[in-house]
Amino acid sequence: xxxxxxxxxxxxxxxxxxxxILAHFERAGFARHEPKLLxxxxxFLDRSGEDFRGHLYLTTDASGxxxxxxxxxxxxxxxxxxxxxxxxxxxxxxxxxxxxxxxxHGDAGDGEFLQAGVESFGREDREAADAEIxxxxxxAARAAGAADLSVRMGxxxxxxxxxDGLDLPPVWRRRVETGHARGLPLAEIFAPPRxxxxxxxxxxxxxxxxxxxxxxxxxEDLLAIAGITPVGGRSAAEIAERFLDQATLSEGVGVSAExxxxxxxxxxxxxxxxxxxxxxxxxAEDAGLDxxxxxxRFDTRTSFLAARGLDLDSMVFSASxxxxxxxxSGFVFEARRTGADEPVxxxxxxxxxxxxxxxxxxIPAVGAAxxxxxxxxxxSGVAA
Length: 384
Hints:
Layout: H1 3-27, E1 31-32, E2 38-40, H2 42-48, E3 58-60, E4 66-69, H3 74-82, E5 91-100, E6 112-121, H4 126-143, E7 150-155, H5 156-166, H6 170-181, H7 186-190, H8 198-208, H9 212-226, H10 236-251, H11 257-268, E8 270-271, H12 273-287, H13 292-307, E9 316-318, E10 331-336, E11 345-349, H14 353-356, E12 365-371, H15 372-378
Parallel strand pairs: 1-5, 7-9
Antiparallel strand pairs: 2-4, 3-4, 5-6, 6-12, 7-10, 8-9, 10-11, 11-12
């Protein structure tokens, strides 16, 4: 009998917290912007895959185009920015309202969530913008009643610089980057894929012992002799390249024990930002890796965070930390209450995303989102 009153209390509190957050963002200089509720479904499916379709509330317009209720804010805000007169220029936006994601089968919930956040575009002083976004999100959450949120951060750009120095074969580079973004343990990332049949295993093993150009030509010749035509739009050369990738993964070619040990040491680095920076510099020096530029950016960002009055000793940088979206290109972070399964705040830098949405070049961009329903359980005086 108390469910309805409890829901009404939660909705009233959520509206009050949303208003407090948006007021804080406005005072901090972020212009309010609210994208349309209906968005083209393809823009989300292209980036999250068809598996994400089950989480979308879908419909079609009169022309048959597939639309969905917005499942998040970042991409809709990016699209509106690119369509505006400010495209390519510095601009900062705040948003707040409902997003819609259908619960997974068997999960509870009605699929509507309150979310607020900020997005910053076009600023070349990236480290200062990173610090501003994290600081603004934390301040806004506190303004809405949340206290004692712990911050965990990572850096996709640092990971990229490290992998550049590790000099892995392209297929292994992609595998490590993808696995890291998904939060997979390193042992699983480096585990060779299962071979499917002894005949295929023999072919793959033979390919790894051949010169790459000769191996590619061999596969193309075999396809031509067998009369196999391209499948799914793939050319014979692309099919051959896929075979060579499988061979490289199966045999572990290009990934020595030393490189695996170095990767393990890198991804184990964790601690307060200053301590983590020192550990990364030691590792780079010992291994002869050029991480100087990435580490200088790291330290510059840390200085901007300190200048905002943030307690760096309470924050944790982890080289293995990632947010599970593939468009992040640099600084990433989450803030959550102790013991919580889900973050209250999440965000990061995504300089490459806007080009995929129609920009003619990469545009510096960083943002953060605050989940209002999670904020409620992190607010002072609110029961979890």
